């Protein structure tokens, strides 16, 4: 299976030559850099005497940047972060999902390609089980498949390391590290799985069993880095996230 995935990823890399590969690399580095700088700043400020609700904009911003980490890793899974060098491409993907929530890039790579090969079927690890089809039950069914006690233990250890060794305030860690990562998982699920892959009235109309949610460019970016153009992503998995609106526009003009 790993060899098969490597071949698929290599094919995506070869098809990505029409995109400036260094632009893709710089975009990935920029997303990771913005997340790191934002988090470092938010963990350093004194918020002890300020109501938590006042920091809602900062929480939403950090949620958006967390989502960007995963989207960056997702592009790496398709070999488009740095098509010229698979090792660099996969290293950046590993860093992004590691920072996101200590995920194993190798395992996510395998399940993501299973999703692309068998969308909205029993073999799709991201699909519901035929019973838990509403948003909340599907979300928890989805999250259980990626649950890991070892990863949870690692995250808890990091929390207490930050609190007791680095002396970071627990309120800051909770509001700007824990809460945004959880909200990001909801955002990614809603815009990247639930909306595009739920069965529409009348049934699926294409082999990818995916549909797009073509919001205006700004809102498409804010909601989930243009991941709402999901049918286009399945049809052109070698295209980086910021090019998806362009692909959608071209498909509508045909």
TrEMBL record:
GO BP of this protein: lipid biosynthetic process
Name of a matching Pfam family: FA_desaturase
Chain segments annotated as transmembrane: 20-43, 55-74, 86-105, 149-167, 173-191
Entry keywords, A to Z: Iron, Membrane, Transmembrane, Transmembrane helix
Cofactor: Fe(2+)
InterPro entries per record: CrtW-like (IPR054681), FA_desaturase_dom (IPR005804), Fatty_acid_desaturase (IPR012171)
Residue ranges occupied by any Fatty acid desaturase domain in the UniProt entry: 133-250
GO molecular function: oxidoreductase activity, acting on paired donors, with oxidation of a pair of donors resulting in the reduction of molecular oxygen to two molecules of water
Cellular component, GO annotation: membrane
Family: Belongs to the fatty acid desaturase type 2 family.
PANTHER family noted in UniProt: DELTA(5) FATTY ACID DESATURASE C-RELATED (PTHR19353:SF19), FATTY ACID DESATURASE 2 (PTHR19353)
Protein name: Beta-carotene ketolase
């Amino acid at each position: 299976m790993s060899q098969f995935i490597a071949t698929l990823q290599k094919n995506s890399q070869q098809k990505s030559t029409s995109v400036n590969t260094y632009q893709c690399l710089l975009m990935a580095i920029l997303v990771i850099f913005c997340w790191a700088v934002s988090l470092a700043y938010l963990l350093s400020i004194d918020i002890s005497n300020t109501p938590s609700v006042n920091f809602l904009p900062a929480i939403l911003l950090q949620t958006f940047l967390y989502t960007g980490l995963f989207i960056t890793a997702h592009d790496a899974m398709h070999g488009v972060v740095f098509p010229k060098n698979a090792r660099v491409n996969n290293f950046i993907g590993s860093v992004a999902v590691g920072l996101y929530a200590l995920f194993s890039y190798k395992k996510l790579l395998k399940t993501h390609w299973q999703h692309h090969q068998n969308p909205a079927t029993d073999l799709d690890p991201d699909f519901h089980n035929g019973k838990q089809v509403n948003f909340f039950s599907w979300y928890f069914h989805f999250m259980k498949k990626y649950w890991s006690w070892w990863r949870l233990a690692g995250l808890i250890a990091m929390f207490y390391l930050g609190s007791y060794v680095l002396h970071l305030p627990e309120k800051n860690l909770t509001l700007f590290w824990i809460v945004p990562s959880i909200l990001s998982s909801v955002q990614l699920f809603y815009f990247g799985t639930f909306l595009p892959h739920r069965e529409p009235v009348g049934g699926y109309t294409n082999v990818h069993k995916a549909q797009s949610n073509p919001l205006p460019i700004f809102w498409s970016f804010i909601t989930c880095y243009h991941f709402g153009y999901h049918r286009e992503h399945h049809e052109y998995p070698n295209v980086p996230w910021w090019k998806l609106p362009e692909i959608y526009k071209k498909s509508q003009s045909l």
